[in-house]
Amino acid sequence: MHRRIFIQTLLGSSGLVLLNCGSPQKEYSLEDITDCDDLSGLDEEELEKRKSLGYEEETPVSDNRCDNCQLYLPPTEKRKCGGCQLFKGPVKPGAYCTYWAPRVENA
C-alpha cells in the first residue's frame, strides 16, 4: 500500500509522462504476407527462434515435412503462406524443423 502511494507521488510530482516516441509496431500476421520468401517483417528474435528450432526450407528427411506436421498451419483463403505454431513467419510445405511431429488425422 505504502509503495503504491510513494510511486504515485513520485510520478505525479515529477511531471513524468511516459510516451511511446516511436510509431506503434503492427502485430506480425501471416495474412499480411504476399511473398512467402519474405522474412523482412520478422525481428531478430523471431529469426533466431526459427534458427534455434532447426528450420530448414528443404527437409533432409523425406517423410518429415512441414505439411505433414501436427504444428503446421496450412495456407487458407486469407493466408497465402503456411505457418507454424512454434514461430512467426512463412513456412514452406516441404520444409522441416527439429520439432516435427506427425499429423494426427481425426478419425
Automatic annotation (TrEMBL):
Specific class of high-redox-potential 4Fe-4S ferredoxins. Functions in anaerobic electron transport in most purple and in some other photosynthetic bacteria and in at least one genus (Paracoccus) of halophilic, denitrifying bacteria. One of its GO terms (biological process) is aerobic electron transport chain. The keyword Flavoprotein does not apply. It comes from the Bacteria. Signal peptide: none annotated. InterPro entries: High_potential_FeS_prot, HIPIP_sf. Residues 37-105 form the High potential iron-sulfur proteins family profile domain. One of its GO terms (molecular function) is electron transfer activity. This is High-potential iron-sulfur protein. The lineage of its organism: Bacteria, Pseudomonadati, Bacteroidota, Cytophagia, Cytophagales. Gene3D superfamilies: High potential iron-sulphur protein. Homodimer. Belongs to the high-potential iron-sulfur protein (HiPIP) family. Keywords: 4Fe-4S, Electron transport, Iron, Iron-sulfur, Metal-binding, Transport. It holds the Pfam family HIPIP.
